[in-house]
Structure formats: structure tokens, C-alpha cells
Amino acid sequence: MSSNLCIGRYFHDGWEFELLVVRTSGEGNISGTVEIKRKGASRGLLTSSGVFKTKQQLATHLKARALEWVNRCGNTAQYADAATALR
Fold first, then answer.
1. Minimal CA–CA distance to 74: which of 50, 47, 48, 39?
2. Which of 5, 48, 51, 73 could be disulfide-bonded to 82 (CB atoms 3.0-4.6 Å)?
3. Which helix (H) or strand (E) holds 44?
4. Average of per-residue pLDDT values in the chain
């Protein structure tokens, strides 16, 4: 785990999503990442696709990205290809 600000954890069907703020701009915009874990092991790391004004907006966006990743191919062995497809 990094020293970035953790803004939440979400659990879904055996998956854990750790939501992190990674950058704050001088204008107050924030961006972040979501680390996707299964059974304690990291399975993917996705970045936000934009900047947000509030932590809640960022958390909602990151959670949606993680759910999309899991639903698209999180239960297959194609973890790297799935993360690339969502960029």
C-alpha cells in the first residue's frame, strides 16, 4: 500500500477495492487510483480518467471503474489485458 490518501474501501463478491487520492492540483481538483484485490493479492490498479472536485465524486468514479473491470474480465486470467482495455 502507498502513502496516498485512502478515501475508502469497497467490497464486492470477494473483491476488495481500495480507493486512493494520488494528486491534488492548486485549483483543488483531485485524481486517484483504485487498487483491485482478490484474497489479499493485488490484481489490478486503475487510474481515474479525469479530475474531480470532491472525494465523493472521485470515489464514485473509481468504484464504477473497478466494478466494470471485475465484470468485464476480473474472473479470468486476462488481468493485464483487462486493465489495458479500460485505459
1. 39
2. 73
3. strand 41-47
4. 84
